[in-house]
Design goal:
This protein has 147 residues and is mainly α. The chain has a single domain (9-141), classed as Sufe protein. Chain: A (Alpha-Beta Complex), CATH 3.90.1010. The protein is built from 7 helices and 3 strands; from the N terminus they run αααβββαααα. The chain has helices at 9-19, 23-36, 42-45, 83-96, 101-106, 111-114, 123-141; strands at 52-53, 62-68, 71-77. A 3-stranded antiparallel sheet has the order 1-2-3. A hairpin with an 8-residue loop joins strand 1 and strand 2. The longest helix has 19 residues, at 123-141. The chain is globular. 32% of the residues are buried.
Amino acid sequence: MTMNDTVPSRLQALIEEMNTLNGHEKLESLLDYADELPPLPDGIALHHDDMLQIHECITPVFVHAELQDGRMQFFFDAPPEGPTMRGYAALLLKGLNGETPETILAVPNDIYYRMGLHRVLSPQRLNGVAAVLAYMKRLATRFVAVS
């Protein structure tokens, strides 16, 4: 599968990994990633009200971003009751943390589709999944002029 040049290599590797899995394995992989979502650092957890809530998600999912040395650092908070969203957020962290704002903005919106998640998630969950990257991009736009 040929990937668009706008997909960073770490994210491309994750897309390719997901494409080797069948439907059940894709869901299991998301659950595994859910366990890898790091807790919020104390400084961000203390200011949880400043995080953006991703309203399209069924479960309450929040995101925060910072620019460190010209590179984006994202932080997510999602409850254990939402393992699909936790897993997808952790997957995007693994694939996109440390990239420039411009790189984040160039990522195609259909990443979840390229992973084959449209075959295993309900349309309502897919709306939430698509929104996660959209909110990451919204935060990245705040830093484009700064980097």
